[in-house]
Design a protein that fits this description.
heterodimer; A: about 300 residues; alpha+beta; 6-stranded antiparallel barrel; 12 strands; B: 7 helices; transmembrane helix (chain B); transmembrane (chain B)
């Protein structure tokens, strides 16, 4: 039997090398094909994830729950200190709640005065976070809602408070959210109250920097950052976070969304703002043929006068 | 002799695939959804290298390619690139394996550390050549460091728990003679 094996190895050497070579060619071919025709391969990627992920998810939920349980259990050790801290925080929160209530009433009054109707199209689908990107270099999440639920590329994903990212890649049952912190994420933003426009550029850190700011002097730490809706990618007015200054003096955004622990995300349905592409039909009365006939000589007359 | 039967061979090959899927599974768990300060070591790469050095017949190139390609798809990397590099690295390990068999663990460690660094560099150079966005250099180097650090654990665990140990030259010679 051993001789048999040695015999096999003699032939296996060149054959194995050939197979390895073919595999290498295929892999590099796939890579180059991806570089040339990215959307097609990305669709394929979404399909692969879509097929494999549900097989994982039944096991993922309990394991995640267990790890979180163990973490929570560890936190029992610092129960007393935590309790004290929570009490202190509760005190602060009470005053904030008071402020919030007053603001809410004021807001309601102002909305009533302005007769504002918030966008009725802005409904949402809530999905469970199935998995994270698994790579330290990419910041994305996998949600358990997909094409089946009407999710489309480019829609905004939020947690309860602020923007988390946007949909990029939709499978039949899953979809991927590229987070604001990913290096490929660039979100047009508006900084209030100064009204400055800027880009929030992900750089793989918890606090993405603000780039392409018109006038940095008008922006102070603590200012609110919301989406501007420029380029029509995201609906305008979604909360991103607050401006903060890092020790280097660079302006960054402290995100409102708690991106360290995301469990559920709501995906906003956004059907885009229809573009205005005609000239002012409303202002000018509709022209008849007689008008045109009368206008023509007048025009030439004016031209001569001029 | 039970070590050499075909069923054992296929069992170990399937074990390799199962281990690969397990590492993917744990990397995907949504525990830390925010950016991480410390990148996790690439356990799968360490596993591929350790097994290729010890028992190349347990990790045919097809299996390595399939496992890494799957991670390429899952971790949002350019598909195929990392897989091709790792297949090449495993091929290099396969060639060096016999020479290292009786050389001790330190020599193996140095070789593997250099290989892991080479894999990271090759990946980076390829990304640059194809004008693709590159991950932060610091993070990549840290990941290389951690992967090197995790390698002895992976290698020893595979030896003791799964019995993936290199056949010594004496054993091989014995096998050839009969």
């Amino acid at each position: 039997m051993a001789r048999d094996r040695a015999h096999q190895e003699d032939y296996a050497g060149p054959l194995r090398r050939l197979v390895t070579f073919v595999i290498l060619l295929c892999l590099i071919g796939l890579f180059i094909f991806w570089r040339i025709d990215s959307p097609r391969v990305e669709r394929f990627r979404a399909q692969v994830v879509d097929r494999v992920m549900p097989g994982f998810s039944w096991a993922m939920a309990p394991v995640t729950a267990t790890v979180n349980l163990i973490r929570d259990f560890q936190s029992y050790q610092s129960l007393y200190a935590q309790n004290q801290e929570l009490r202190r925080e509760l005190q602060q929160m009470k005053s904030w709640k008071e402020a919030a209530l007053q603001l809410e009433q004021e807001n309601a009054r102002l909305l009533d005065l302005n007769n504002v109707r918030l966008d009725p199209q802005l409904t949402y689908v809530t999905g469970v976070v199935l998995a994270d990107s698994g790579s330290p270099f990419r910041q994305s999440l996998l949600l358990n809602v997909g094409n089946r639920d009407g999710i489309q590329d480019g829609w905004a994903a939020m947690d309860g408070l602020g923007l988390v990212g946007r949909i990029s890649g939709v499978g039949e049952r899953t979809s991927r959210v590229i987070m604001l912190t990913d290096t490929s994420s660039k979100v047009p933003a508006l900084i209030q109250p100064s009204g400055q426009k800027a880009l929030v550029v992900g750089d793989n850190s918890m606090v993405p920097p603000i780039d392409f700011l018109e006038d940095a002097d008008q922006v102070r730490p603590g200012d609110r950052v919301i989406t501007s809706g420029d380029a029509g990618v995201l609906p305008p007015g979604l909360v991103i976070g607050q401006v903060a200054k890092d020790p280097g003096g660079r302006l960054r955004v402290r995100l409102s969304a708690d991106i360290e622990r995301l469990e559920f995300l709501r995906v906003l349905r956004d059907h885009g703002t229809p573009a205005v592409d005609t000239a002012g039909d409303l202002v000018v009365p509709p022209e008849t043929e007689e008008d045109l006939a009368e206008e023509a000589p007048q025009d030439t007359g004016e031209a001569v006068d001029g | 002799m039970a070590d050499n039967t075909a069923s054992r061979l296929w069992l170990m090959r399937l074990t390799f695939l199962a281990l690969a899927l397990t590492t993917v599974f744990f990397r995907l768990l949504p525990l830390e959804t925010g950016p991480v300060r410390w990148p996790a070591p690439d356990v799968l790469l360490a596993l591929c290298l350790a097994w290729s050095l010890r028992r190349p017949d347990y990790v045919p190139a097809v299996f390595v390619a399939a496992a890494i390609l799957l991670t390429d798809f899952f971790f949002q990397r350019p598909p195929g690139l990392m897989a091709a590099i790792v297949v090449l690295a495993c091929e290099a390990m396969r060639k060096r394996g016999p020479g290292l068999r009786d050389a001790g663990f330190l020599a193996e460690m140095i070789l593997v550390a250099l290989t892991i660094l080479a894999v990271a560099l090759a990946y980076r150079v390829a990304l640059t050549l194809f004008m693709l966005p590159r991950p932060l250099l610091g993070l990549s180097l840290l990941q290389v460091l951690f992967t090197v650090a995790i390698y002895p654990v992976v290698a020893l665990a595979s030896e003791w728990l799964l019995g993936v140990r290199a056949r010594s030259n004496a054993e091989l010679a014995a096998g050839r003679m009969t």
